[in-house]
Amino acid sequence: MTPSGLPNEFELIARLFAPLAKDAPEALGLLDDAACLAVPAGAELVITKDAIVAGVHFLPDDPPESIAKKLLRVNLSDLAAKGAVPAYYLLAAILPKTVTLSWLDAFAAALGDDQKTFGVSLIGGDTTATEGPLTLSLTALGFVPRGAMLRRDGARPGDTVFVTGTIGDAVLGLEVSKGGLTGLSPAHREALRARYRVPEPRVSFGAALRGLAHAAIDVSDGLVADLAHILEVSKVGAHLDLARVPLSDAGRAALAQGATMERLVTGGDDYEILFTAPPLAATPLRTVAKGLAVTEIGTIVAGSGLTATDASGSPVSLAKTGFRHF
Ligand code: ADP
Ligand code: MG
After folding, report:
1. Do residues 136 and 91 lie in contact, with contact meaning Cβ atoms separated by under 8 Å?
2. Which ligand is the nearest neighbour of the Cα of 92?
3. Which of 86, 96, 98, 144 is most buried, judged by most C-beta within 10 A?
4. Residues paired with residue 298 on neighbouring β-strands, in sequence order
5. Residue with the nearest Cα to atom 11 of ligand 1?
6. Residue 124 C-alpha to ligand 2 middle, in angstroms?
7. What is the largest CA-CA distance in the chain?
8. CA geometry: angle 153, 281, 158, nearest 5 deg
9. Which helix (H) or strand (E) covers residue 11, if one does?
C-alpha cells in the first residue's frame, strides 16, 4: 500500500485491468511494454480517443459504473459513426489520491460488463496519480473493410439528412442531474438522466450504414453543431426541419414545460448517428435499423450554411453553436 491508501500502480493494473485483458492474447496479460495485434486481411484499423474529466464531462459524484460506461461508449459511438466494428481499447487512468479502491473496483467491473455487451477487450494503457481532477482517457480501435470508413466529407446536394434515436435527452438529463426540471414526472426525469449518464452507441447500425450513407458523424457537440461539421468539410449547405427532429416522450414533456427546441438541438451528448444518404436509401436503411428509429430531418443543398424552419414553416435562426471547451 502507498501513503494514499491505494495499492501501487502495478498492483492496481494486476487487480483492475489485467482481468479486462484476459480474452485478448494481443494484450500479453498487460505484462509487456505494448500490445501487438494483427489487422485482418482486407481491413483497415479505425482509431479514436476521447478523454473525460471530472467536473467537465461528468459530475464528480456520478456513480463509477456510469462514468466507466460513458467513457467507453462515447468512444464506441465515434467508431459506430465511422462504420467500424469495435475490437479493442486502451485506457489511461489519471487518478487523484482521494480515489478509493472500492470506487476503482466498481469502475473496472462496469467496464467488464460493457466489454461483454460490445465485444471489446482492453489491451493496454497507463496508470498515474495526479493532484488534479480524475481524468480518464480511452482509445478505441475498430475495423472496417478497406476504403469503407464513413467520413464527414461525403454529403452531396439532394441527400436526405437522417438521425437515429432521439435528440435532446442528454442535455435535459444533465439539467435533471443538477436538480432542474422538477415539474417532470419521476419516470421522465430518470429516463433523461439515464440518457445523460450512459449513452447508447449505435454500433450495429453504424456498421450497416457502410455503402448506404454518403457522410456520417456522431452527435456529441449537439445536432446543429455536428451537422455544421459535415457541411463544412463536404462543402455543401443544408435545410433542417425542426418539427421533424425526433424527441422522446420525456423530451416532449420537457418542451411542453418550457424547454426550447433550440436547447435540444444545440445541447450535446446525444451519441446518435447523424448521416446523409440519397432519399432512395430510406427503405433499405429502415430494414438494417432493426427497430432503431431513423428519421429524415432535412436536406443537403448546394452552397453553404444551415437554414432551419419550425412546424409552421417559419425560418428559425440557430445562432447558438454546440459545446466548446475553449
Ligand atoms: P511502461 O512503464 O513500459 O510504459 P507501464 O508500467 O506503464 O509500462 O504499464 C505496464 C503494462 O500495463 C503495459 O502493458 C500497459 O499497457 C498496461 N497498463 C498500464 N495501465 C493500464 C491501464 N490503465 N489500463 C490497461 N492497461 C494498462
Ligand atoms: Mg509503457
Report:
1. yes
2. 1
3. 86
4. 161, 240
5. 30
6. 9
7. 65
8. 55
9. helix 9-12
pTM of the model: 0.95
Alpha-carbon distance 139 to 79, whole Å? 11
> What pLDDT score was predicted for residue 2?
55
User: For the segment 175-224, what is each residue's pLDDT rounded down to a tens digit?
Assistant: 999 999 999 999 999 999 999 999 999 999 999 999 999 999 999 999 99
Compute how many other C-beta atoms are within 10 angstroms of the C-beta atom of residue 326. Answer: 2
| Full strand arrangement of the beta sheet holding 237-241 | 215-218, 273-277, 160-164, 294-301, 237-241, 305-309, 315-316
Closest Cα to residue 157, out of 73, 262, 259, 238? 238
Ligand nearest to the CA of 27: 1
Closest alpha carbon to 294 in 178, 205, 210, 215: 205
Residue 27 Cα: closest atom of ligand 1: 14
Atom of ligand 1 nearest to the CA of 92: 23
Ligand nearest to the CA of 13: 1
Cα(33) to centroid(ligand 2), Å: 5
Q: From 264, 252, 243, 245, select the one nearest 184 (Cα to Cα).
A: 252
Q: Provide the 3-class DSSP secondary structure of residue 45.
A: strand
> Which residue of 15, 16, 20, 30 sits with most ligand 1 atoms within 8 Å of its CB, as the best mutation to test the pocket?
30
Question: Which residue's CA lies nearest to atom 18 of ligand 1?
Answer: 125
DSSP string, 104-124: HHHHHHHHHHHHHHHT-EEEE
Provide φ and ψ at 173, rounded to 5°: -65, -35
